[in-house]
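Page 37, continued from 36.
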């Protein structure tokens, strides 16, 4: 799919879709609870439908309504319906579910698409090896066999928080206690806090012994719970940046008390010179002049692409720290944004863990490519709302935000889509 975007002033009102991160967690917890749970405010992106299908294979009965999922959770791990688990491109689905499905004791084969199986899984391969369990990975599949055991685990804190969350879903169900020791530097702690928050709603208690140690009591059980999923600050960021560079949009559907790490977008926009108002649950963002400031992606790596767009329209050079993990997402996001921003007249340089965006040099763009990456497509679309142009590969938005271009139109931007 191709999007042609005309330069047009942002205005109007947008309701941000529910948090993909929280929806994954709620659906998994509900599927592990013996009883009925109702999860409301669901957006059926590819990632979320993937997790739903995986939990059905574990044995959960899941009925999908318009924006509500009713889940009858499993009684035990003997209800596995299929040992071939397709995870599409969802890193959260894969990494959350490897320890969970290991509890079946069966041989499980995980498959995926595009770059998913090229993304690092060494944390799990090491854990399975240490416990004498099977973990085999090639470019087509990951095969595991054998259940994770209660013990003390040591996990790197700078690869992905998804490995820690995956263990947190599974370890409370074991007979004995466990601990997770996190090796510094510890990045994306906010995502661990989201997991702990959701687990608590379903009756699972996790405690921090100190800032790098998690204590997990064994013998716990998930309790059914009805949950309404909050709005997604990683998606909010695209319309926050749109407002900053190209007008003012009223943005609703968010929880101001959210623990999401991507809520950092509010502080970043303020640092760059934006005025941010909040009234009756609606955010209004505007800016007279944007000035580059340093940005730390330690707890919000998903914001990387759209922050490159923000930096492109700001005065000065923006240094973005702790950016190295952008290379191992759905695309190599540093190279992707370097390439596409160059087409718009903006230079991005990089070192191992830092990028610098030279702002204030944007110009009308030649056709852009989406790199099969939802966040690259959306970041480029925000830029083109000012510059005008076209993007190929826009179907990638279905991974996380199927209604993005409809919402972009609601925000006053002229967009035409072509197959």
């Amino acid at each position: 799919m191709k999007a042609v975007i005309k330069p047009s002033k942002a205005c109007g009102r947008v309701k941000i879709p529910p948090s993909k991160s929280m929806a994954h967690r709620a659906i998994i917890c509900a599927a592990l609870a013996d009883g009925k749970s109702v999860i409301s405010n669901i957006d059926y992106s590819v990632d979320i439908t993937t997790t739903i299908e995986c939990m059905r294979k574990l044995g959960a009965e899941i009925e999908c309504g318009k924006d509500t999922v009713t889940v009858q959770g499993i009684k035990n791990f003997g209800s596995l319906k299929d040992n071939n688990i397709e995870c599409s491109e969802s890193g959260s689905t894969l990494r959350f579910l490897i320890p969970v499905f290991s509890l079946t004791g069966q041989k499980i084969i995980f498959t995926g698409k595009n770059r998913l199986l090229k993304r690092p899984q060494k944390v799990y391969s090491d854990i399975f090896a240490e416990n004498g369990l099977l973990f085999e990975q090639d470019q087509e599949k990951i095969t595991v066999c054998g259940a994770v055991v209660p013990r003390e685990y040591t996990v790197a804190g700078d690869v992905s928080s998804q490995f820690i969350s995956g263990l947190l879903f599974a370890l409370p169900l074991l007979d004995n206690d466990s601990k997770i020791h996190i090796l510094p530097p510890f990045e994306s702690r906010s995502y661990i806090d989201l997991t702990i928050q959701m687990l608590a709603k379903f009756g699972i208690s996790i405690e921090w012994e100190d800032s790098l140690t998690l204590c997990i009591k064994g013998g716990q059980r998930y309790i059914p719970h009805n949950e309404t999923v909050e709005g997604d600050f990683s998606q909010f960021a695209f319309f926050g940046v749109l407002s900053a560079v190209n007008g003012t949009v009223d943005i609703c559907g968010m929880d101001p008390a959210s623990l999401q790490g991507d809520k950092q977008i509010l502080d970043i926009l303020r640092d760059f010179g934006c005025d941010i108002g909040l009234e009756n649950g609606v955010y209004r963002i505007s800016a007279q002049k944007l000035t580059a400031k340093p940005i730390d992606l330690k707890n919000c790596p998903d914001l990387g692409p759209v922050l490159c767009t923000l930096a492109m329209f700001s005065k000065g050079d923006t240094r973005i720290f702790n950016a190295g993990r952008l290379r191992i997402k759905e695309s190599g996001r540093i190279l992707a944004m370097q390439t596409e921003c160059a087409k718009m007249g903006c230079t991005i340089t990089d070192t191992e863990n830092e990028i610098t965006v030279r702002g204030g040099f944007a110009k009308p763009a030649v056709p852009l490519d989406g790199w099969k990456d939802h966040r690259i497509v959306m970041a480029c679309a925000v830029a083109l709302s000012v510059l005008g142009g076209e993007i190929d590969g826009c179907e990638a938005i279905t991974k996380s935000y199927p209604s993005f271009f409809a919402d972009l139109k609601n925000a006053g931007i002229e967009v035409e889509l072509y197959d």
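The chain has a mean pLDDT of 95. Flag for discussion at group meeting. Residues 20-228 form a domain with the UDP-n-acetylglucosamine1-carboxyvinyl-transferase; Chain fold (CATH 3.65.10.10).
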